[in-house]
Design a protein that fits this description.
It is a single chain. The protein is an alpha+beta fold. The chain contains 5 helices and 3 strands; from the N terminus they run ββαβαααα. It folds into 2 domains: 70 residues, GIY-YIG endonuclease (3-Layer(aba) Sandwich), CATH 3.40.1440; 33 residues, no CATH class. Strands 2-1-3 form a 3-stranded antiparallel beta sheet, sandwiched between helices. A hairpin with a 5-residue loop joins strand 1 and strand 2. Helix 3 packs antiparallel against helix 4.
Length: 103
Amino acid sequence: MKQYYVYIVKCNDESFYIGITNNLERRIYEHSIGLKEDCYTFKRRPITLKWFEVFTEPNQAIAIEKQLKGWSRRKKIALIEENWDKLIEYSKNYTQFGKNIEK
């Protein structure tokens, strides 16, 4: 059974990159060495793998990747830190919390 990984890496400029791959080890290596100059992470190395999840259905992995890309920074941090209370709190009412960014 084939596996698909949705992952979050943190770049040296403190930004996050979210991607999907069928070989996590290879993909993190490619980001780390700067395989492609036009890749978002190329000028933001070194990168650090912060989170990943494994899926067996590619469509589910793609849906999760798209969902995470739409999340606020604070929600991504809550996921990475497995802070489920904050993740739920930040999911309830975006306008209540505004656009303040936590690092």
